[in-house]
Amino acid sequence: MSGYLVRLSYLMTVMMEMTDNDAALRDWAAGFGPVLAANAARYDAEGRWAQESYEHLRENGVLGLAMPTELGGMGATIRQTSIVQCELAKYCASTALALSMHQHVTAFTAWRYRREMPGAEATLRRVVEDRIVLVSTGGADFTCPRGNALKVAGGYRVTGRKIFASQAPAGTMMSTMFAFDDPEQGRRVLNMAVPFADPGVTIHDNWNSMGMRATASNDVSIDDVFVPDERVTANRPYGVVDPPLQIIVSIAFSIVNGVYLGVAESAAEHAIAAAGGKADDPMVQRQVGLMTHKLRVATWAHDGALSVVGDDPSPSVEMVVAVMAAKREITTAGIEICDIAMEIAGGAAFFKGSPIERAYRDIRGAKFHPFAPEATLTHAGRFALGLPCDEM
Q1: What topology does CATH give the domain 243-384?
Q2: Across the chain, what does the average pLDDT equal?
Q3: pTM of the shown model
Q4: Distance of alpha carbon 171 from its chain centroid, rounded?
Q5: How do strand 201-204 and strand 148-152 relate by DSSP bridges?
């Protein structure tokens, strides 16, 4: 057995020991913190891919976190995966967010595996045995994907340009979508697996953002790539949050929400540490109280959504509403928390290199994941009023 598989076997044992022990799980994830924190400011300043930190997590089996244990993974639940991602984000949000795009695809593939769906087991085995990295393009595609598929013998030829392909430099396989005009069913969405190694795939080094600068969320062009029928994982209605997408959304954002909650936690912790000499000031006391209040409520929202999703969710619009409500709360409260943290810490937090300044920018990335905060309210309102709310 290779050294990597030996480490993964050990981590399976660790995970079993940490079941139902959130503190132990956070402590385990925090063990990677020194490496991530040592690189975070440099990655942010240079705007480059968090390669060394990502490889550190990869070498230590963290990419197998949501893999079923019988296939060689750690067997973490959706909730446990979110806890780990939250803790990692406190040290380097970019590394954690990039990793979450692999984790949520793995978690959804594990969901498919439990239902014996085609291709799921083979993909999961490659995550462990070949150490492949799965990249999601769903954040920019969602219900109306960029690009089109053309039916040919044995599969499809696909062309399009995907944006926000986080961790693209490390990616092995894209979990992506294309629009397809079916002569009988009309316009459809095909979920597909596209390998980065195909000569028709080009990664554009164009990620230069305000926050989450080290995620390498580059554009990826796909030019006339052949995808065999067996790599098509779903054939869905166009423009609709249908049951398969309800599962994808609920798993994905349960995990991604943890990252942004971790950013807010980090800002609050650094602000409280910086406030030590001003603790007797009633204004500082109020600011700290408001900041911790908002963090507590955001945490409750996240915990509540995770309880709705559970370990093995079934499709449900109500579940999507719960997860998106938590996402909105974490987004809006997180932005306020980071603003207040900067005020508490004072001028030093305004300078580049400050972890609070970095969190102030990173947290704003949460707005650009679907649903946007205002769209979340409209969707929730339509659901509460008994109106159709599956088209987005």
Answers
A1: Butyryl-CoA Dehydrogenase, subunit A; domain 3 (1.20.140)
A2: 94
A3: 0.94
A4: 15
A5: unpaired
pLDDT digits (tens, 9 = 90+) for 28-42: 999 999 999 999 999
Is residue 338 within 8 Å of 350, Cβ to Cβ? no
The C-alpha atoms of residue 125 and residue 67 are separated, in whole angstroms, by 9
What residues does 143 pair with on adjacent strands? none
Q: State what percent of residues in the chain have pLDDT above 90.
A: 90
pLDDT reported for residue 1: 46
Which CATH number is 136-237 given? 2.40.110.10
Pairing, β 186-195 against β 173-182: antiparallel
Q: What pLDDT, on a 0 to 100 scale, did the predictor assign at position 9?
A: 58
CATH class of 3-132: mainly alpha
Cα 206 to chain centroid distance, Å, stands at 20
pLDDT digits (tens, 9 = 90+) for 279-302: 999 999 999 999 999 999 999 999
Q: Encoding tokens for residue 27? A: 């402590």
Instruction: Tabulate helix, strand, coil % of the chain (nearest 5).
Output: 60, 15, 25
Is the bond into 368 cis (omega within 30 degrees of 0)? no
Nearby residues of 3 by Cβ (< 8 Å), 6 or more positions away: none
| Per-residue tokens: 358 | 């970095």
- Summarize the confidence of residues 111-118 as an average pLDDT: 96
As a whole number of angstroms, the distance between CA 119 and CA 103 comes to 17
State the amino acid at position 44 in one-letter form.
Answer: D
Report whether 315 contacts 111 (CB < 8 A). Answer: no
| Helices and strands, number each (H, E), in the chain | 13, 8
Closest C-alpha to 98, from 143, 40, 23: 40
List the beta bridge partners of residue 228.
155
Q: How many residues does the chain have?
A: 392
For the chain, the domains span 3-132, 136-237, 243-384
Q: Side-chain half-sphere of 255: how many Cα atoms within 13 Å?
A: 28
CA angle 10, 11, 14 (to 5 degrees): 95
The 10 Å CB-count burial string (b at 16+, else e) for 277-304 is eeeeeeebeebbeebeebbeebbebbee
Residue 125 has pLDDT above 50, yes or no: yes
Q: 1-5, 47-51, 200-204, 309-313: which range is least confident on average?
A: 1-5
